[in-house]
Amino acid sequence: SSGNIRVYCRIRPAFDAEAKTVVDFIGEDGSLVVIDPLKPWKDGRKIFEFNRVFGSSATQEDVFRDTKPLVRSVMDGYNVCIFAYGQTGSGKTYTMSGPGVESTKEFGINQLALNDLFLLSDERKDIMRTKLCVYSYKIHVLMVEIYKEQIRDLLADDPLLTNHTLEIRSCMNGNGLPLPDASVHPVNCARDVIDLMKLGDVNRAVGSTSMNNRSSLSHSVLTVHVHGEDTSGNIIHSCLHLVDLAGSERVDKLEVTGDGLKEAQHINKSLSCLGDVIIALAQKNSHIPYRNSKLTLLLQNFLSGHAKTLMFAHVGPEGNSFGETISTLKFAQRVSSVELGATRLNKESVEVLELKAEVKYIIL
Ligand code: ADP
Ligand code: MG
Q1: Residue 78 needs a FRET pair 20 to 30 A away by CA distance; which of 46, 155, 250, 262 works?
Q2: Which has the higher per-residue pLDDT, 340 or 251?
C-alpha cells in the first residue's frame, strides 16, 4: 500500500529458542506467512502484506534505518505519528524505548529519533553559518499517559500535579498544543530527553500497583515539538508523536472482572477507535469518530489527513499466542490497506507572514 500510512511488522525473538515458531516465511517485499500450530497443513497458512516485516534477528538499528526518513521529515514541517501496537509482551516498549539507554545500540526509536533530530539540527546550524537558507531549531518535549480515559502529565514540575487530569482543548493556544496545561520541556541533546523519559517512567509507576500491569493498561505518548526558522524568516512548527499503546489483548482473554474489566474494555475501545479513525480518514468519510477516545481526540489535529503515520505491529513467534497474533496482524492489515490524504507542510512562507502582519495593521 502507499499513501501516508505505513505499517511495519516486527517479530520478537522467541522466549524459548527451541520452541517451534508460527512464522513460516518473511518476504523482502513485506509479506509474512504464519501457520496455525493446530493446523500445520495448507489451510492453516495465512498470508499478510505490510510495508515491511522485521524478523526476530532485526536489530534496533535495522528498525530505525527504515524509520529515519519519516522522523527527519518532522524537521521539514511535517507532523508524524508513530504507534507501537501489539499484545502485552510482544515487544512494543522494546521497539520504542529500547532495552536500555547506556549505549546507542540499546536505544529504541524514541532515543534514536531525538538523537537524529539534534544531529540534523546541528548540521543545519553549520550550514546556516555559510549563509544558505536553512533552519535554526528549538525542540521541546512533553510526555503524557492515557489511563482509564484520563490524561496525566508524566513530566509535571510538581510531582503532585502528576495525578491531575489534563483537558484537551481543540484550539491550539498557549504552548501551541492541544494540552495547554501540560508541562513542556526544552531539550538540547539526547541526554536531556533520556533524563526526562526516566522521570516520566518514575511518575508513571507512581500510584499504580504494578508497573507491568500499568504499562499494559495505558498508552504513553511522547510528543516532540519542533519549531524552526530560516534565514529569510520562514517558520515551521511540527510535531512527532511517539506512542507506546496499551496491550491489544482481547477482553475475553484477560481474566478480569469488575473494575479491571471496565479498564480492559476502555483499552479495547480506544484501540479499535484508533483503527476506525485511520480507516475513516482514508475513506474520506464526512464523519471521523475522533471523539470516541481520548487518544484519537488528543491526536486529532495530527492525524487528520495531513500527517505521516507509521504503525509497528508487534507479534511473538510462540504458538500459544497464535490467536492474538492473528488478531494483531488482521488489525494491522486493515490499517495498511488504506491511504491517507496528501500530507500538508506546516510552513508559513514569508509572504503569508507578511500578509498576516499587514492584515493586523489594517485592523488596528
Ligand atoms: P510490551 O511492551 O509489548 O509489553 P516488551 O517490549 O516489554 O513488550 O517485551 C517483552 C520482553 O521481550 C522484554 O523482556 C523485552 O526485553 C523482550 N523483547 C522484546 N522485543 C525484543 C527484541 N526485538 N529483541 C530482544 N528482546 C526483546
Ligand atoms: Mg510495554
Answers
A1: 155
A2: 251
CATH number, domain of 93, equals 3.40.850.10
Instruction: Enumerate residues lining ligand 1, CB below 6 A.
Output: 12-13, 86, 88-94, 99, 216, 314
Q: Are 117 and 139 in contact (CB under 8 A)?
A: yes
What pLDDT does 363 receive? 44
Give pTM, 2 decimals.
0.88
Using CB atoms within 10 Å of the CB of residue 102, give its burial: 0 to 12 exposed, 13 to 18 middle, 19+ buried.
exposed
Atom index in ligand 1 nearest the CA of residue 10 equals 23
Mean pLDDT value across residues 81-106: 93
Contact between 186 and 115 under an 8 Å Cβ cutoff? The reply is: no
**Candidate from 12, 95, 107, 248 with most ligand 1 atoms within 8 A of CB, to mutate:** 12
pLDDT value of position 24? 93
* Ligand that comes closest to the CA of residue 62: 1
Number of separate domains in the chain: 1
The closest of 310, 280, 308, 307 to 292, measured between CA atoms, is: 280
Q: What does the pLDDT look like over 125-169, one tens digit per residue?
A: 766 555 555 678 999 999 999 988 899 999 987 766 666 788 888
